[in-house]
Amino acid sequence: MTIETTARSVATEATLPFTLPETPTELRASLEAGNAIAWYEPVEIPTYEPHDPSTFPMYLDQRVYQGSSGRVYPLPFTERIDSVPTLRRWNAIHVENQYIRVMILPELGGRIHVAYDKTTDYDFFYRNNVIKPALVGLAGSWMSGGVEFNWPQHHRPATFLPVDSTIETHDDGSVTVWCSDHDPFARMRGTHGIHLSAGSSTIRLDVRVHNRTSLSQTFLWWANVAVRVHDDYQSFFPEDVRYVADHARRAITAFPQADRPYYGVDYQERARDTPGADRLDFYRNIPVPTSYMVVDTDHEFFGGFDHQVGAGFVHWADRRVAPGKKQWTWGNAPFGQAWDRLLTDADGPYVELMAGVYTDNQPDFSWLAPGESKRFSQYWYPIPAIGVAHEASPEAAIHVERGAQFSAAVAVTSPQPAARLVVLSKDGERVVELSSDLTPGVAWHEEFPLTYEEGMAVRLESAIGATLVEWLAPVEVDGSAEPWTAKAPPAPSEVGSVDELYFIGLHLVQYRHPSRSPLPYWTEALRRDPSDSRVLTGLAELAFRAGEYDIASGYVKRALTRVTEFNGNPRNAETLYLLGLIESRRGDQHAAHAAFAKAAWDAPFVAPAGLEMARQYAREGRYEAALHDLDELDAVAPDDRRRGVLRVVLLRRLDRLTEADSALSKLLNEEHLNPTLTFLASGRLPADGPTALDVGLELVHAGDDDGALQVLAAATEIGPTGSGNGMPLAHYHRAAILDRLGRAEEATTERALARSADRRWCFPAGLDDHDALVAAVRAENDPVASSLLGMLLFDAGRRADALQLWEAAIRAGGKDSLLHRNAGLASYNVAHDDARAVEHYDRAIEIDPSDARLLFERDQLAVRLGETDEQRLARLSERFEVVEERDDLIVEYAELLVSTGRPDAALELLQERNFQPWEGGEGRVLGAWDRARTALGLPIAEPPLSLGEGRPLYEAPVARRANGEVDYFATSLPDLLLFSRSE
């Protein structure tokens, strides 16, 4: 996929909204016949391009992001956006029927960028007429507008990366646009289909999330819908919503009228001065960045309504799996307005109305078992001038007035001739019945000739009597009961039981807590009960994920002693299954097979353990046995999408080519955009290097070494991109396969090729990378393999091991700045060797003196080592042309100018630059500007727009207490991004 960017810049202030292309001539007849249509056609949009990511891995596991860990490794990290836009041709997919039009951008995570209601001439989602990312995303770049599909974490790690896509046309006149990719962390697969039907104004989203790994993984899933707002835009939740919660449920307040301070704002006090200012459903009333998530509701809808335009939208989803309903706003005040300017040029403020599936809060992670897939759908549709919806379904929405005049307004999503609007008494008697022909985009308003009485219902029926939507008045509940709020767990020594210690540790793992580790809780649990099987299994899994197989084996065998002490057939086989995985990685395939076989006695592990045994047979060349196992698994546990690739490989190995082709064709129809199936069918590989590696490694696990070698050879030619770089790793994986096949000379050649390959943004992760790099280090004194393995281990928490590898790589001749930077970071954080840290950082800067991140990190090290302001200023002044490349360095430089008596120079420096703040790191630029002005005797003033920040009206919660302790619910800890010493 090519990217075309003009050389000329565009003055976006004078740019009209970008134009959607006309419907292609060859599709117009189908559209006019009432069908939905879809096509690819590029769109030119003014775009602020992100700079290339940093070449250094960012170890940000202690960064707080959306209430959980802001760990970004192995994704490259973007730190700067162009300040001047260019006109870029974006690959776009257009979907249209007679009622709505949608534009999808597969180069930006497959997001919906435009959702336009043709019937009301209204963009019911926020339409951003520029692509203007700001530093909000997990890996940097993030843009506002449309719908962002977030998984397995918020905001989506791949939100600014391309996805694979395809258009599927159905016989019923509907179309689905499928988008799919592998998440950058656990390499799970996420696929979403944006579906438009003939004769319907509804966007249906069909989602498939699949854990293609051998371990359980955590995830959350939120659709992040943006809507353009102003003083008269109202968000609505179901009428039974009484409370909303902050992130992690650390605080609550009533909804829609706040009944207590929330995010530091006393809404009741504000309402005393301005009646109605305590209403949280109007953006105009919220002065600070605020999240509120629905705590409890029995209903399945929510949305927003524009009272100026007389239009809005409804979201609907099955609340059994989709309870999450949330609004987020930057706030209607200078602080939030500064962020609005950073994210658009002329389209104004927005709020996000998010819908969560298998989650109702952020963070609120659920589990995907090995091989498990989850499938769900969500629905959005525009509504005309009915007002806020009081009840909604996928077929219709209704608004009911119960004041002096009892009335209702309804809107439908498909034509409903002779629809009936019925009022039922509290006894269920039909007391009013009216009829009308309804179409999408036209509201039906009716006043009822009676007075509303408690217990009445209003129902919209189709001509044949099917209920389209029914409104029932919310049931009054006891107002004294409030929902629970979260509390920080006590210190391990203060926890009352081993059971509680185990579950606190599990919570910290599941929710990816950024500043609390499960280890102190599980260590205390073992002090009290050294054989607690749950804790030992949890510790075994942590060690296994980090590649510490022998340690993991010790833990899991201790756990099995307790598990099988009185019962050789345990009710839960998790520990046996984990033993199988561990022994397989350790090379004892006999022990692994025995563990898997026993684990398969337990129903939840039939599928994952069965697959592992079938893969073992395949790798051993026992193809008939493997195929027999797959047939047996399909009969008793059909839901594991990983079997498809293995089946096709086995059938081909057995020369049953017709069966293989038939199986492959069926799988491709079921699994849209599966890259391994695509390769098996056509030989075509994804353009993304890490995903190409996934294809090759999946073939390795299926016993297809020849196919894997072919894929990995092609992967060595896929250059580095914003998603990473698999080139050196492809060589190392080829070397590992060739060594196993007894082709040692070829393996040696591959390792040599790995050492000469482009290593930019090559950040290895996962156990397959771990094992290939361990093999390379053992085979030769390979500084590149040692450097790469060190990066993987440092991210995995094995930081002392990482430092040893980096020092060994340097002794073996490694000379690049990345290696010295990593060793310097570890020398400070792990070894507490200040002198060695300085030595490494200074050597890194000597190798690459133009790299501004190196200079910034060296200055941060200087702060922690207590260097004087004069020393720091002198070092930075020597490379001021490098300092100018980074906002944070400019801020540090300005602070040093103030502290050394040159506030006038600091103020001039700050005011001549356009800054781009990080979300969560706001206040640094403004604070430096204030200090410079104060030093000059100038009063506090409103900052210039160039600072990129507005002055907050209220103080944010403090992340770090006065005693240095990190608050359990901290929302931002920018000072713990890299330099954080281990005990």
From TrEMBL:
Chain coiled-coil ranges: none
One Pfam family matching this protein: TPR_16
Domain DUF5107: 72-383
SMART domains: TPR
Taxonomic superkingdom: Bacteria
Name by which UniProt lists this protein: DUF5107 domain-containing protein
Gene source species: Agromyces allii
